[in-house]
Amino acid sequence: MKKKVDKVVLAYSGGLDTSVIIPWLKETYAGCEVIAFSADIGQREDLTGLEEKAVNSGASKCYVKDLREEFVTDYIWPVLRSGAVYERNYLLGTSMARPLIAKYMVAVAEQEGADAVSHGATGKGNDQVRFELTVKALSPALKIIAPWREWHIRSREDAIDYAKAHNVPVEATKEKIYSLDENLWHLSHEGGELENPWNEPAEDMFKLTVSPEKAPDKPTLIELEFEKGVPMAIDGERLPPVELIEKLNELGGANGIGRVDMVENRLVGMKSRGVYETPGGSILVFALRELESITLDRETMAWKDLVAQKYAHMTYNGQWFTSLKEQLDAYIEKATQFVSGTVRLKLYKGNIIPLGRKSPHSLYREEYATFGEEDVYNQHDAEGFINIFGLPLKVEAILEREGARASKRRDFKK
User: Fold this and answer.
1) CATH number for the segment(s) 7-67+94-175
2) Which listed residue (38, 82, 127, 156) is catalytic?
3) Does the annotation count 98 as an active-site position?
């Protein structure tokens, strides 16, 4: 017998999975009141009819909250500044959105006096972890209901049948079974024919980007300005965070930039294939790296790369509200204190090409790097440096010749 639940807050998108969860919760937990919560995080959907749809599906009410600016300033910018990229390709669009949504689910649950929260993440995916770790960190007493781990539905085809049986309107069909997740940062595609990694993505699947082949023959030139690792302006025009990303999405998408097709390792242990569109994000990640090339010293850059990898895994794994995450944020804040300046880029048929970078804090000095005559660097000093730097190699070579150490380094044909 199910433990009694009086009131539950559901993370509600209006899509297939969350739409069928409302009647399922009311059937499974008899007498349960379902309150839907929807977050506007830039998914380019008309949310005006969402409350009515949720109520018609059986919810007592539906909260719809605009979280776009908070999403950018408190989630996207920290990930961007960290340099986090999961498995060399994924820019973490879905990963960093889930803790934000779950945070407000908890807030609504506390406001409404709910004793449970629910989500539509599957038992095979990463989102279940991201939602639930956030709930545990912010309100550990709340019960968590994950229908995909309980019900008889085992596929999106089953979910479509269930929706029809309960008169729940959904847009998904058995012929077009892709799973989409969109927000201000990206659009992800999974499922259907993409589950075979040999299948090429259908061109009509892409929504944010044109194919590089159909991109304009004339390149687009842009300048991006950053302050302490945070994007502030495009072509000299300072823009609010949401507008800045929206404009870069348009520019990048029109030039075929930001498509990623990858097979990634899910936290739960299996591999999955995803196709992502992140036009504006791809431009920002590239530009920030260019700016860091002149503002970060060698050791800071190397250490920040290590932090970025850890940050990416923590974000991907839903460990957003943790002590270590706060500590890494403190390091990144310090490491990016001088990452301010301007980067000039060329966008052309899927490519991002650097044209120039400048900063008032640049560590690059032409008088040091020049091959011409200069007074600040004595090239004769390099001999002593190399002698000291190469001393361990010299000692090993002497020992090898004396027979004290064996090595294959001298195994070459005479």
Assistant:
1) 3.40.50.620
2) 127
3) yes
